[in-house]
């Protein structure tokens, strides 16, 4: 087993950081604006004083910088695609067929992986002969269209090709999905594919020009993932933003022009209250034994499923609205490279059980993926950075404070400020310090 190398991080504060800090507002008088972003709150603090904030210029090559795109408002970008996810509402017969195709696709994928691991050739023709052709599988698998099973082999070979440089261990696929080529979806699919066009959706299906992936998620919802041309959108304003993710407050966003935005401040308790219902239902299921309680258990399991669907929809709603707003109003966004998996690992974590549950519920890593997706549409530049010592360091003098509290108080310079606000500001300072950034025009 390969042991992950532990990085040794040191406090980032230097004389250059102090010089940069003098140009960024930190504790001016502010006015508060509070609004609702749906079920979650959005709090904005705006400085009363005029902030003559210079533009931030980066001199670094920024290896992790992504999403550089020349934006032409409301234009389709040739050659670039994005995936559109559409919810499907199949009837009972359509569900049966879709699940049967997914089982066959997953079986074919895993069977081909077993053959490759046992030393068989990676040639596509050879693998199809061993695990796709009718004479090599049972009747239940062979009843599924040949191309659906054949595309599972192609999926595996593509995954192996991508994985060769990363050297990850290939594992069996658990995701329930299958691929349908565009030619089959549109005209030449025949009777077996015809029903796909008629599955009910709440929104019109786009024109299919590329392979479509149909999948079933953990909440028993069917989706179709359709590649469509990327269409750029117009940003309402430009500017830089640094984000500090948290457990109590989902995102704390610092703008050097004189504003701080808190998204989801203490709203995670609403999610936790709903989750408690699921724990209550599960407790009843565990104590309701015997065949006479079979219907009761079935009813409670359905309640649990519906409750988790509601939670997932609430979290997705906050992700979508936050990502759209941030990309729509900023040209550059600094965001930490989330290590939630390491933070919640029982052997490595330094946080308590309740904080761990809140972090898992917010799904920060999933938000980062969606932010990248939205950034491509608005031409926003996402810069992934590190956040070590940003919450412990005084943003005014650079002294460390290991005390854990909602408010940050420095005993040396008497700075008193919200801890998340201080962390978001220090993320910007840390990145500029490590990458030799400077402030323009006063400091160039």
List the helices and strands and how they pair.
Blueprint: H1 15-21, E1 30-36, E2 41-47, E3 55-57, E4 76-89, H2 92-117, H3 124-131, H4 139-142, H5 146-163, E5 176-180, H6 182-188, H7 191-197, E6 200-201, E7 212-216, E8 222-231, E9 240-245, E10 249-255, E11 259-265, H8 268-287, H9 294-329, E12 332-336, H10 340-344, H11 353-362, H12 364-378, E13 381-385, E14 407-409, E15 416-418, H13 419-434, E16 438-440
Parallel strand pairs: 9-12, 12-13
Antiparallel strand pairs: 1-2, 2-11, 3-16, 4-6, 4-8, 5-7, 7-8, 9-10, 10-11, 14-15
Strand arrangement in the largest pleated sheet: 1-2-11-10-9-12-13
Order of helices and strands: HEEEEHHHHEHHEEEEEEHHEHHHEEEHE
The helicity comes to 40-55%
Instruction: Work out the oligomeric state of the chains in this entry.
Output: single chain
Mean pLDDT: 83
Uncertain runs with pLDDT below 50, 5 residues or more? 1-7, 56-71, 438-444
The helix count comes to 13
Number of strands: 16
Calculate Rg over CA atoms. Answer: 26 Å
Biggest sheet layout: 7 strands, mixed
Q: How does the helix and strand content classify structurally?
A: alpha+beta
Bin the strand percentage: 15-25%
> How far is it from the N-terminal to the C-terminal residue, by CA?
49 Å
In one word, what is the shape? Answer: globular
């Amino acid at each position: 087993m390969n042991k992950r190398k532990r990085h040794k991080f040191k406090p980032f504060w230097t004389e250059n950081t102090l010089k940069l800090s003098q140009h960024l507002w930190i504790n001016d008088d502010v006015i508060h604006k509070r609004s609702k972003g749906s079920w979650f709150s959005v709090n904005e603090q705006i400085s009363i004083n005029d902030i003559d904030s210079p533009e931030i210029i980066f001199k670094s090559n920024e290896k992790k910088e992504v999403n550089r795109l020349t934006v032409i408002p409301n234009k389709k970008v040739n050659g670039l695609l994005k995936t559109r996810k559409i919810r499907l509402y199949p009837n009972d017969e359509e569900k049966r067929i879709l699940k049967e195709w997914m089982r066959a696709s997953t079986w074919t994928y895993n069977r081909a992986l077993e053959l490759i691991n046992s030393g068989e050739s990676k040639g596509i023709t050879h693998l199809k002969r061993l695990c796709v052709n009718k004479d090599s599988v049972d009747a239940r698998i062979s009843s599924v269209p040949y191309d659906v099973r054949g595309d599972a082999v192609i999926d595996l070979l593509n995954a192996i090709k991508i994985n060769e440089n990363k050297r990850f261990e290939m594992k069996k696929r658990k995701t329930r999905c299958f691929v349908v080529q565009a030619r089959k979806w549109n005209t030449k699919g025949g009777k077996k594919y015809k029903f796909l066009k008629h599955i009910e959706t709440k929104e019109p299906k786009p024109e299919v020009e590329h392979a479509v992936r149909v999948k079933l998620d953990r909440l028993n919802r069917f989706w179709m993932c359709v590649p469509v041309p990327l269409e750029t959108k117009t940003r309402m304003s430009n500017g830089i933003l640094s984000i500090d993710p948290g457990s109590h407050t989902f995102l704390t966003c610092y703008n050097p022009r004189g504003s701080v935005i808190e998204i989801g401040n203490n709203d995670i308790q609403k999610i936790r209250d709903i989750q408690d219902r699921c724990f209550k239902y599960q407790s009843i299921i565990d104590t309701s034994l015997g065949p006479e309680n079979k219907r009761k258990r079935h009813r409670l399991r359905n309640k649990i499923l519906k409750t988790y669907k509601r939670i997932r929809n609430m979290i997705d709603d906050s992700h979508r609205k936050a990502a759209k707003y941030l990309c729509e109003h900023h040209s550059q966004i600094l965001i930490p490279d989330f290590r939630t998996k390491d933070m919640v690992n029982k052997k490595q974590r330094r946080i308590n059980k309740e904080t761990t549950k809140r972090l898992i519920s917010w799904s920060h890593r999933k938000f980062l993926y969606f932010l990248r997706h939205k950034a491509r549409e608005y031409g926003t530049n996402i810069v992934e950075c590190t956040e070590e010592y940003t919450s412990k360091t005084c943003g005014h003098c650079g002294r460390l404070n290991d005390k854990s509290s909602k408010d940050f108080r420095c005993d040396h310079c008497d700075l008193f400020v919200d801890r998340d606000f201080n962390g978001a500001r220090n993320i910007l300072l840390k990145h500029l310090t490590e990458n030799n950034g400077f402030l323009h025009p006063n400091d160039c």
